[in-house]
């Protein structure tokens, strides 16, 4: 297995993701090549919790323009990790 810190890149802290934290769901930006099994094991190892379910979202690039130049935002992969009842990730819930 790869290093869990290369699989989980960063937590995504937005208003929507903080509302999901109340339902014991946490959102992370993950490596584009990671699968659900690797993400589940990485979250369990890093945060010492039990993950129940992992859902993956592949975000497509959006067109952006600044003056005459235009381009695209970068693609990214997000994972919504549902934890078993009784577990909590303090890093995100303390924000």
CATH class category: Alpha Beta
CATH homologous superfamily name?
Answer: RRM (RNA recognition motif) domain
Domain count:
1
The main β sheet shows up as: 4 strands, antiparallel
Q: Classify the helix fraction into a percent range.
A: 25-40%
Poorly predicted residue ranges:
none
Short account of what is shown:
The chain is α+β, with helices and mostly antiparallel strands.
What does the secondary structure layout of this molecule look like, with pairings?
Elements: H1 4-7, E1 8-11, H2 15-21, E2 25-30, H3 36-47, E3 51-59, E4 63-66, E5 69-72, E6 76-83, H4 90-93
Antiparallel strand pairs: 1-2, 2-6, 3-6, 4-5
Task: Write a structural description.
The protein has 95 residues and is an alpha+beta fold. It has one domain (4-85): 2-Layer Sandwich (Alpha-Beta Plaits). The chain has 4 helices and 6 strands; from the N terminus they run H-E-H-E-H-E-E-E-E-H. The strands form 2 sheets. It has a 4-stranded antiparallel β-sheet with strand order 1-2-6-3. A two-stranded antiparallel sheet has the order 4-5. A hairpin with a 2-residue loop joins strand 4 (63-66) and strand 5. The longest helix is centred in the middle third of the chain and has 12 residues, at 36-47. The protein is globular and about 50 Å long.
